[in-house]
């Protein structure tokens, strides 16, 4: 039986947990500001990711928005305009921790993107493993147009998605990319009809969460840790992750269930 609980972290983040599907939903909930990343939202996101990262009952997470017109429009520039250099320096560690909090979640993560996902908003999506977007999506990293650079991982995550030259063009031009082109060049992974992004992301998360929780976390760890390494170093990381799962209760149950032609009951150990 499925039970959905909802918990608010600070003022701007909601986490829903479904015990039946083992899927969590991390909701950006500052709708009047189109989820602009303020200092407060960043701090709330750090708190939520810390709690969710330690929850071993959740096997996949969807990052979504409570605003119909936007996933997240990026940094709160109205707030930034009032900050001194000292204020900006003081807020920087929390802002950085918010993005790495999403990036470091140990379970597979899926961003459900519609409307504007710009600057820091698109960097939150890039911090997820998979991006599902609807046909209203407009994405981009326009930071150089306001005198800064992507500071939530964009200069490192975007080249890993689309290659160095394409990432350079997108970051240097600061241009916005509409949904069809975003899908064509790999900025998003799946494109669905308008208003279907959340439903499709949750459905995908549910399919993922049916698999071994130990296997999912180990596979993600191998994928992420192996980024940027040479092949042989990456294979060593893969072998270490394989050893984690090969002697686990999940491997024993998975093999037994396959041979007995039944659905696995994962111990998650």
UniProtKB/TrEMBL annotation:
GO molecular function: enoyl-CoA hydratase activity
Top-level division of the source organism's lineage: Bacteria
UniProtKB keywords: Lipid metabolism, Lyase
Catalysed reaction equations from the record: a 4-saturated-(3S)-3-hydroxyacyl-CoA = a (3E)-enoyl-CoA + H2O; a (3S)-3-hydroxyacyl-CoA = a (2E)-enoyl-CoA + H2O
This enzyme's EC code(s): 4.2.1.17
Keyword rRNA-binding: no
Keyword Lyase appears in the UniProt entry: yes
One of the GO biological process terms: fatty acid beta-oxidation
Family as reported in the entry's similarity comment: Belongs to the enoyl-CoA hydratase/isomerase family.
Name recorded for this polypeptide: enoyl-CoA hydratase
Organism from which the protein derives: Streptomyces bathyalis
